Amino acid sequence: MASATQSSSSEGIKQYFVAAVATLATVGAVYQYAAIRYGATGLSTLNKSLATSTLFLLGLVLLLGPLCRMFARFDRWLKFRKELGVLTFYTGAAHVYLSMFVLARRGPWGLYLSSPWSAYPGLIAFIIMFLLLFISLRAVETALGTKLWWKLQYLGARAAFFLIAFHMTVLKYSGWGSWFATRGAEIQVGVPSLPPLAILAAEFSVFVFLVRLSELFGQSLAQRMIQASFLAMLGFTVWLFF
To answer: 213: which residues sit within 8 A by CB, 6+ positions away?
Structure first.
């Protein structure tokens, strides 16, 4: 019994380690892209990377289930889903903290007063993620029962992802038209005219939605839909950069 417990603990540590590496790699890569794209480093750029990484990581959590059901090659990654979800909460928490306190120009609620349609969905998503983390405590999970716990996780993760995608789109879409029209010609000299992070996040959000939607059509058709969606996302990304 002690050996089994030790093995389980060791496996849990390994899963958190892998999830932590994936999380840090995502935040780091997005930070580097943002630093190049916006020509600046520091907390503001870190905040952008935390926001976008939260969407990417939560989207990955939602993708792992259907990808594992449709393609056996993804099976070994499913065991990291819970740990990724937990760490995604902390990237979101860091983003909310920086936005409301450290980087806030008009106080904690300034953004909510000036841009309620974009700010409040993001805050609600963070609250949902906190609740999902809370009900993941073993005692709470046991009290809720497996069936209710899974239902809350299922609905909560999807609601949080939708709200984050909505938050980022409403907050940033006003600048997309000018970028598409000029391909970033208005960007200051010396800064590459790379696509805004929010466009890449929106594209990824559509891909996640299509993958989740594909499961409604049976495995064979779903596999083809996922493959076609991935190729479309890849092609659109290439077009954005070239």
So the answer is: 225
Global model pTM greater than 0.90 = yes
Average pLDDT over residues 98-102: 96
Question: Using alpha carbons only, how large is the chain's radius of gyration in Å?
Answer: 19
> Which conformational region is residue 187 in: left (phi greater than 0), alpha (psi within -120 to 50 degrees), or beta?
beta
Residue 165's CB is within 10 A of a number of other CB atoms, namely 23
Nearest to 240 by CA among 210, 202, 211, 188: 202
Question: Per the structure block, which two tokens stand in for 156?
Answer: 């909560």
Whether the Cβ atoms of residue 62 and residue 116 lie closer than 8 Å to each other = no
Model pLDDT for residues 161-182, shown as the tens digit of each residue: 999 999 999 999 988 988 888 8
d(CA 50, CA 164): 12
Q: Could you report the per-residue pLDDT of 185-219, keeping only the tens digit for each?
A: 666 656 678 899 999 999 999 999 999 999 999 99
Alpha helices in 41-137 (DSSP H): 43-70, 81-97, 110-114, 116-135
Taking the CB of residue 238, how many other CB atoms lie within 10 A of it? 9
User: Whole-number mean pLDDT of the chain?
Assistant: 92
